[in-house]
Structure formats: structure tokens, C-alpha cells
Amino acid sequence: MVTVGVLALQGGFAEHLSLLKRAADHISTGRGQQPVVHLAEVRTPEQLAACDALILPGGESTTLSLVAVQSGLLEPLREFVKVSKKPVWGTCAGLILLCEEASATKRGGQELIGGLDVKVHRNHFGRQLQSFVQDVDLPFLSRGKTEKQAPFPAVFIRAPVVDQMLHRADSPGRAIEILAKYPSNGEGDDIVALRQGNVFGTSFHPELTDDVRIHVWWLDQVIKALHDN
Ligand SMILES: NC(=O)CC[C@H](N)C(=O)O
């Protein structure tokens, strides 16, 4: 049994839990109905300690980091990601928290968890009113499948992009995989999905769609990673 937590301090945690539940049912059905995933909301260091993997939802990254500090969760989260190296996935504000550097807020910097050796540009596409849905090609969803997967309906809400790689002497062998760029066929630098070791991030919000494919893919990766360890 794998315990997957969703950080439930602020933002879209309920939506992630409902897609995770569908993804978990999907995986269990494929494995002879045995439930393999237990889901948990995470608000305290004790709840985090019980998790094998974690999702950081979208919301507002400055609020999320302030509440994480107040709840005594910031250091345990850093340990979870960078010392225990457990699988984590951040969406939108969650992705921002998982980057080593973020573009400054109006009032200055913010505490980050880190784990991805990149710099992220917050609110890259503008304000809430400039939110949009865009089909994005995600080739990683087609790996190991006989048919190419349809594009993913990616929901961008005050979304960040990763636009700078940071080269760190202390991270040899932790290659960054760029999993999707915006636009899908573009030559630009706007990375909207990436992975570095145990850390996966998307700029957009799969939990606000009805499309369970990324949740299924990630859960599968989590189960494989825990199996290999
Ligand atoms: N939808 C989102 O998660 C938006 C993230 C927000 N722009 C931030 O900086 O935290």
C-alpha cells in the first residue's frame, strides 16, 4: 500500500484528491482490484511523515509558503523533497514552491521548498482574466503505449513558466527532463512540464479537468519508484 498525500493548506487540494481517487481506482482495477493507494490530506508534519509521495496543488504560492512556515511544515517539506527524495508533483503554485528560484513578488522574495534546479517566472501569462485552456502535447503520456495520446487540455491560471536552468555543482547526475513546452510545437524557452529525479512539475492544472491521464501516469511512476527502492 502506498500513501499519497496532498498538501491541504490552501488552493486546489480537493480537486487533486478527487482525480487521484479516480486514478487510484483505475490502477487498482488493472491490478486485480487490490487497492494499492491510500490518499491523505496533509496539514501537519505528522501527516507528512506518514506519506510516501506528495502533491502540492495550485493556489497562491506566497500564501502557501507563509502557511507552510506557520504550520511548521517548511523544513519537513524540504526534507521530504531533497533529503528523503520522495516523489512529489507540484501544479502551478505547487510547481513554483518546488523551484530553487522564483521571480520576485512585489514585496520581495518568498520562501521556497526547492528541488528543481531552475528559475520560474510567476504569472507569466498575465492576470486571472488572461486565464485560458490550451491543448498541449505531452509525449511522456504515450511512452510504452501503442497509440500516440491525444493532446492534454491544459488549464493555465496566472500560470508560471520555467525559463532558466540553474547549474549547481552539488547536483551531478540529476538531469532535468523537459516534458512539455508552450506552445507545444514552439522553439521557445517556456517550459510548462518538467521532471528532475523525484520532482515533477506542471505549470497548468490537470486537476481542474476531467482528464485523469497525468494523475494515472504519475501514480504509476510513484508505485514503480517505491518498488525499485
Ligand atoms: N493557479 C495558480 O496556482 C497560480 C499561481 C500564482 N500565480 C502564484 O504565484 O502563486
From TrEMBL:
Top-rank EC class of the record's enzyme: hydrolase
Family, according to the entry, reads as follows: Belongs to the glutaminase PdxT/SNO family.
Instruction: State the organism of origin.
Output: Xylaria hypoxylon
Ordered alphabetically, the record's keywords are: Glutamine amidotransferase, Hydrolase, Lyase
Q: What does the entry list under GO cellular component?
A: cytosol; glutaminase complex
Q: What is this protein called?
A: glutaminase
Q: Where is the active site?
A: C92 (nucleophile), H205 (charge relay system), E207 (charge relay system)
- Cite the EC number: 3.5.1.2
| Cited HAMAP family | PdxT
Per its record, what are the GO molecular function terms?
glutaminase activity; lyase activity
Superkingdom of this entry's organism? Eukaryota
Q: Which Pfam families match?
A: SNO
User: Which reaction is this enzyme known to catalyze?
Assistant: L-glutamine + H2O = L-glutamate + NH4(+)
Give me the residues that bind L-glutamine, please.
Answer: G59, E60, S61, R122, I157, R158
**Which InterPro entries does the UniProt record give?**
Class_I_gatase-like (IPR029062), PdxT/SNO (IPR002161), PdxT/SNO_CS (IPR021196)
**Gene Ontology BP terms:** pyridoxal phosphate biosynthetic process; pyridoxine metabolic process
